[in-house]
């Protein structure tokens, strides 16, 4: 797993690298001090995963997330935030970020979040989710539920996506192959008009997709 770290504070970046490379499946291949540097690196190198700060000079994490998801939609992005960054985190998720964590998270949680995002999960730090989710859903009462018809299987998969489950976890829960889950997700995204998995998870919560 080729990881790009985007963080303007060198000491924080070095600390994150040490933590992530405790996992033998993770390689911090490149580092950047801002979003613009990150985009330049992505133009030249194959990157699987970006771990990115929100507040940075030149180009912040939200702007960079928007550009990266438009140019390289397959790249997973995990936003690092603080309690004061919840508004930024909301916008980052709307731009397609695959999740966010607090910088104070334990090492094991940080590594687990990387794997979860890579496997298709939506990672939300529980201490910040309570502040962020209401903002993501604040317009749900104003927006009528769209006339979208999902099959029972598609409803079940959408519900699990809304719970932050990975493709592997969804496959296990529904006794399907991972490939079948991916195929269903492609159709669900087309039907609901959602751009990516993060948007589908928000859609599931907004529209109270349940059993």
TrEMBL record:
SUPFAM superfamilies xref list: C-terminal effector domain of the bipartite response regulators, CheY-like
Residue numbers bearing the 4-aspartylphosphate modification: 53
Source species: Oceanobacillus jordanicus
All residue ranges annotated as the Response regulatory domain in the record: 2-118
Pfam families membership: GerE, Response_reg
UniProt main location, coarse: cytoplasm
Name assigned to this protein: Response regulator transcription factor
GO cellular component: cytoplasm
One example of a Gene Ontology biological process annotation: phosphorelay signal transduction system
Domain HTH luxR-type: 143-208
Subcellular location: Cytoplasm
Keywords: DNA-binding, Phosphoprotein, Transcription, Transcription regulation
InterPro entries, per database record: CheY-like_superfamily, NreC/VraR/RcsB-like_REC, Sig_transdc_resp-reg_C-effctor, Sig_transdc_resp-reg_receiver, Tscrpt_reg_LuxR_C, WalR-like
Gene Ontology MF: a single term: DNA binding
């Amino acid at each position: 797993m080729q990881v790009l770290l985007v963080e303007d504070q060198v000491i924080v970046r070095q600390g994150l690298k040490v933590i992530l490379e405790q996992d033998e499946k993770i390689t911090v291949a490149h580092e950047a001090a801002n979003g613009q540097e990150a985009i330049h690196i992505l133009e030249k190198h194959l990157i699987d995963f970006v771990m990115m700060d929100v507040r940075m000079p030149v180009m912040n994490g939200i702007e960079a997330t928007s550009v990266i998801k438009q140019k390289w939609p397959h790249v997973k992005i995990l936003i690092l935030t603080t309690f004061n960054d919840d508004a930024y985190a909301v916008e980052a998720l709307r731009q397609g970020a695959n999740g966010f964590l607090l910088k104070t998270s334990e090492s094991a949680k940080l590594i687990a979040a990387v794997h979860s995002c890579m496997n298709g999960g939506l990672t939300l730090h529980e201490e910040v989710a309570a502040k962020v989710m209401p903002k993501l859903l604040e317009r749900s009462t104003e927006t009528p539920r769209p006339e979208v018809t999902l099959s029972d299987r598609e409803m079940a998969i959408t519900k699990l996506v809304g719970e932050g489950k990975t493709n592997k976890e969804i496959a296990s829960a529904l006794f399907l192959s991972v490939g079948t889950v991916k195929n269903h997700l492609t159709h669900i995204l087309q039907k609901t008009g959602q751009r990516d998995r993060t948007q589908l998870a928000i859609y599931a919560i907004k529209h109270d997709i349940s059993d």
